[in-house]
Amino acid sequence: MEYFKEYKKRLTRYVGRKKAMHIIHEAVYIVSVGTNDFIENYYSPTSSRRKQFTVEEYEDFLIGLAARFLSKLHRQGARKISFTGFSPFGCLPSERATNFLGHGGCVEQYNKVAIDFNMKLQALIERLCASFPGLKLRFAPTYDLFLHVVQNPSSYGFENAIRGCCGTGRMEMGYFCNEWSRFTCEDPNKFVFWDSVHPSESLNRIFANQTLRTSLAEFL
């Protein structure tokens, strides 16, 4: 939010206040929140969040943070906002790799959290749209498509949906994955996941095309 405020100041200095506000109003904002808050925070072995919150309370805590952020964004002039829902993060390679009792399958407990959070997020979006005239806040679903790709990778041109392209594909992520590493696969387009957490460029393109046809369609 602070970066956005700074951008507004610079934009206003560059084009003037009237044109700057027109740009701010007409711009499309894409917001995503939550997945890392569960993977890297709530469900982390070293996290203290589970001592503070039940999973339902933590969902509500994140929804409250999202509500405050979106309200601030609206006050700054944003009117066209797409909010990306949770994917089935229990199917990420990093989570499947540690699901020993589930024989390496998706962690259904985590997927249920994603479904519950998405329902609460959609309810929040309805409330905010009713509270702020002129606000076009749309939910961008990813759960169903993501799950269908993971369960039917060949239907989308993929050969592997269990591990990422990088390294073992089960634990590595971020800076450990790059095109210069000899442990990176030769053709990332055959993989649903780039590393143990992030989708490959090919899967992101599928998500982008769906979003352009659905939640972003009325903005374009």
Automatic annotation (TrEMBL):
For this protein, what is any one GO molecular function term?
Answer: hydrolase activity, acting on ester bonds
| SUPFAM superfamilies named among the record's database cross-references | SGNH hydrolase
UniProt similarity note: Belongs to the 'GDSL' lipolytic enzyme family.
Enumerate the PANTHER family for this protein. GDSL ESTERASE/LIPASE EXL3, OS06G0636700 PROTEIN
The protein, known as = GDSL esterase lipase
Instruction: Please tell me the species this chain comes from.
Output: Musa troglodytarum
